[in-house]
Write a structure and sequence with these properties.
The complex is a heterodimer of chains A (302) and B (151). With 302 residues, chain A is of the alpha/beta class. Chain A contains nine helices and nine strands. Chain B has two helices and nine strands. Chain B has a five-stranded antiparallel β-sheet with strand order 2-3-1-4-5, with helices on one face. Chain B has a four-stranded antiparallel β-sheet with strand order 6-7-8-9, with no helix packed on it. The chains are: A alpha/beta (302), B mainly beta (151).
């Protein structure tokens, strides 16, 4: 049976999250199959994103599917003024599923209303990037053996970071205790704290990264981006506060893992890479299995 | 000295929309499309009101609104009350109610939302009625009372 589009992390229930994670574990065991051999998958990247696009294309290629699409809208008729709805209607005729990324927010939802095939949102501006959230959840589940009752640290840019917002929404289904580690300028917005309050979930706010490290099950690092700051002096002051150093891991729990959506700049010191807690490169590989699972689920192949 | 008073005559059949916040009167006229109506309309603004300070009132002859139409004005005139008039008598009083979903009318506050960049009818879910908060169906951002902007 064919399923709906995946536009927003809120489109899927807790049961569907678990179903996809179990499928991802299956693809991790058998990443190369030919279940997509009669399928054409369109990857429409109206905004470049090498990492996400390669991850999707690897996922499809390993399942024997064909890929059509583009990685930059300047070479398409969008640059001639074609509307999104026309582009989507046309590509719907050619393909069995559309993976799309777009710089404007809400485009994937709009596309899902005009497409005759399912849409997977691979990022719409600062709004949603649900496959990233699912691969983060898969990485947490795999390393911790469960999603329930974990202490998850979200570190860095908690104000604008769409990955941390989506992860918070999704993980709030699993009795998570969140630790928000950020400078004042990049604090977790009130609306998300209110959301947790309404669900009766606990959270801790701190400006110090090292302080609670011995309580962490997952440390989710993000990049503090200079362009977010109105005051460059403020940026200089905080930029080095949120760098994860190897020495900070001394007190860490044995099961603790460090995640990062990548690309990293300097927020994780290089010597952390070969610490047993470092998991971010494996996390990127998990993205392929998770995307295989999402595609197979949506096309009703598993 | 004679009292000089403008007398707005009662209407025989139609609708009186009372208790409109003064600043919203012309928006109410626009939303209900009263500027296109051919029948008799009288309206007043900045009238004294105990509840609102200043209020607006509109009397529309021979026009009756559906619930759906009338709830469109609830976002900008939540205090508005309607009197349905038949044969010079008030036969029904109606309060406006904020609907669960809002289609069109309001612009999404987010400049990067697709609805502000392509021709798309806006759609919102009302996530809070007091204070009013609208969640965009497309970009999922919240538009609140202080940045409500009519299309």
């Amino acid at each position: 049976m064919k399923h709906k589009s995946l536009v927003s992390i809120n489109d899927f229930s807790k049961e569907e999250f678990m179903k996809i994670l179990e499928l991802a574990a299956e693809f991790e065991q058998h990443p190369t199959q030919d279940i997509l051999k009669d399928y054409v998958i369109a990857t429409l990247f109206f905004e470049p994103s090498t990492r996400t696009r390669l991850s999707f294309e690897t996922a499809v290629s390993r399942l024997g599917g064909k890929i059509v699409g583009f990685s930059d809208s300047s070479s398409t008729s969008t640059s001639k003024g074609e509307t999104l709805r026309d582009s989507i209607r046309i590509v719907s005729n050619y393909s069995d599923l559309i993976v799309m990324r777009h710089p404007l927010e809400g485009t994937a939802r709009l596309a899902s209303e005009f497409a005759s095939v399912p849409i997977i949102n691979a990022g719409d501006g600062a709004n949603q990037h649900p496959t990233q959230t699912l691969l983060d959840m898969f990485s947490i589940w795999k390393t911790q053996g469960t999603l329930e009752n974990l202490n998850i640290f979200l570190v860095g840019d908690l104000k604008y970071g769409r990955t941390v917002h989506s992860l918070l929404m999704a993980m709030s289904e699993f009795n998570t205790t969140f630790y928000f580690i950020a400078p004042d300028e990049l604090k977790m917005p009130e609306e998300y704290k209110l959301y947790l309050d309404n669900k009766g979930l606990k959270y801790v706010e701190s400006k110090e990264l090292g302080k609670y490290m011995n309580e962490a099950d997952i440390v989710y690092m993000t990049r503090v981006q200079q362009e977010r700051f109105t005051d460059p002096i403020e940026y200089e002051r905080v930029k080095n506060v949120y760098i994860l150093q190897r020495s900070m891991l001394a007190e860490a729990k044995e099961n603790m893992k460090v995640l990062h959506p990548l690309p990293r700049v300097n927020e994780i010191a290089l010597d952390v890479d070969d610490a047993p807690q470092a998991y971010y490169f494996q996390q990127a590989l998990n993205g392929v299995y998770t995307r295989q699972a999402i595609i197979a689920y949506i096309l009703g192949l598993k | 000295m004679k009292d000089k008073q403008l007398i707005v005559t009662a209407i025989k059949n139609g609708t009186v929309i009372d208790h409109i916040p003064s600043e919203s009167l012309f928006s109410v006229i626009a939303i209900l499309g009263l500027d296109q109506i051919k029948t008799l309309i009288t309206f007043g603004n900045s009238l004294e009101s105990k509840k609102l300070g200043k209020k607006g009132i509109i009397k529309v002859s021979e026009v009756f609104f559906s619930t759906e139409e009338i709830n469109k004005i609830a976002l900008i005139a939540p205090t508005a009350k309607l009197n349905i008039i038949r044969d010079f008598e008030v036969v029904e009083k109606v309060k406006v109610e904020i609907p669960e979903k809002v289609t069109g009318i309001i612009k999404c506050v987010n400049p990067k939302c697709i609805t502000n960049n392509e021709v798309v009818t806006t759609k919102f879910n009302v996530v809070s009625k007091e204070p009013i908060k609208l969640k965009c169906h497309y970009c999922e951002k919240i538009t609140s009372r202080e940045n409500l902007d009519m299309i």
